[in-house]
Amino acid sequence: xxxxxxxxxxxxxxxxxxxxxxxxxxxxxxxxxxxxxxxxxxxxxxxxxxxxxxxxxxxxxxxxxxxxxxxxxxxxxxxxxxxxxxxxxxxxxxxxxxxxxxxxxxxxxxxxxxxxxxxxxxxxxxxxxxxxxxxxxxxxxxxxxxxxxxxxxxxxxxxxxxxxxxxxxxxxxxxxxxxxxxxxxxxxxxxxxxxxxxxxxxxxxxxxxxxxxxxxxxxxxxxxxxxxxxxxxxxxxxxxxxxxxxxxxxxxxxxxxxxxxxxxxxxxxxxxxxxxxxxxxxxxxxxxxxxxxxxxxxxxxxxxxxxxxxxxxxxxxxxxxxxxxxxxxxxxxxxxxxxxxxxxxxxxxxxxxxxxxxxxxxxxxxxxxxxxxxxxxxxxx
Length: 381
Ligand SMILES: *[C@@H]1O[C@H](CO)[C@@H](O)[C@H](O)[C@H]1NC(C)=O
Ligand SMILES: CC(=O)N[C@H]1CO[C@H](CO)[C@@H](O)[C@@H]1O
Hints:
The chain is mostly beta strands. It is 13% helix and 45% strand.
């Protein structure tokens, strides 16, 4: 075992030794970044009653935020593939997604209907599809489900203003290995990020920052599943713009946001990559302005520490806003600009993993992958 570890380390060093790689690592890892202060702007409050809501998607018409929440104890002690916690537990794991009703400041647990009682339901990323014209009362809700028997994508139907999720189907495929986040583009088609190539080399992948993650497209109409973007360093959040013509992917160890154009055959064409210099987590798009909000971590080494020691201190957070560049350098082809709009050392929420915004209601919701509660902030912080 020790010999293997030594060989892996040497290999990692050999692969690692290139100048840009090292300077990027130093930037993303935040080694020289000063300590982050606690946020004290007074425009955030914590809403208790939920745990580990890693992903949040706001349905703007109703003001309902759909949240993939879970159980902090299970995720830190029992079983959770996204942080490499793989055990032989036989415990049935059932987590509960929630709606946070922004207008009424209320949490509503969602009940699963028609879902096999013997199956695990362990959440990570989620996505929502809506066909408002033809099915005005219905949403399709997609979840990455990390079952003990292997990870899958679950598709549910939700009738607006009910508290139910009715299970429609499970998509299991050899190419869907370590699904992190999912973005549906119709009720039968989605893109999913595989954050790593296999479960077992996860930590190794992260440390040497190898680009072994990918994006997979699945269609239940044509029954195809294929890799449409490859060579990504820990692709994490994935989302799309309003008409699903663009797909955005954040990379945690790459420190980048990749911007793809979606082709008519569903393949992705990389049109831009924006190095934001922070470890990017989940993404969300402001539906009115098209701006992209990224939850990012200032000290990703703290995330690695957490993979090894679940009692390590929380990661300080940042929210980055990416806008169309309006400054002078846009004439040199720099299409996007980015800035940090929120920073906190973990005093509000530990380890923020998602920032979802609702401009109509001037609200930004923050979720965390460890710890309890969500934060509700004013958007004009
Ligand atoms: C954030 O910083 C404040 C003030 O420096 C400190 O009291 C607090 O413990 C820090 N919180 C975390 C989670 O590190
Ligand atoms: C939806 C999504 O991308 N979830 C990720 C959010 O960030 C946490 C922390 O890095 C990941 O573990 C989740 O998988």
